[in-house]
Design goal:
Layout: H1 2-18, E1 21-29, E2 37-46, E3 50-51, H2 59-65, E4 71-81, E5 86-95
Antiparallel strand pairs: 1-4, 2-3, 2-5, 4-5
Length: 96
């Protein structure tokens, strides 16, 4: 019985720690030409309620980080760890 429990616990631990998903999606596009600048804003969210840095990862913050005034397009990346309990979100803004 103990051996079965240890095997089950090992499988569950691997499933919890190994379950990570990355989702990449375009958010917006404009008629402006693709520029040479890329701004990035990141945040880590735990349980969907609390951001570890207290910062938002919005388009405005990403554009300001690279001094972009004319946005070409925006991409968003979400990476989930431990069955979605911890999420790392990244917003990338491209333009001039």
């Amino acid at each position: 019985m103990k051996r079965t429990f240890k095997a089950f616990a090992a499988v569950m631990a691997c499933a919890l720690l190994g379950s990570c998903v990355t989702i990449s999606r375009p958010v917006a596009a404009t008629g402006n030409p693709v520029g040479s600048k890329c701004g990035v804003a990141k945040s880590t969210i735990i349980l969907g309620l609390w951001s570890s840095k207290g910062d938002e990862n919005g388009i405005d913050k990403a554009a300001k980080s690279a001094d972009i005034t004319k946005i070409s397009h925006v991409d968003s990346y979400t990476k989930s760890y431990v069955l979605g309990i911890v999420q790392k979100q990244t917003t990338k803004v491209y333009g001039e």
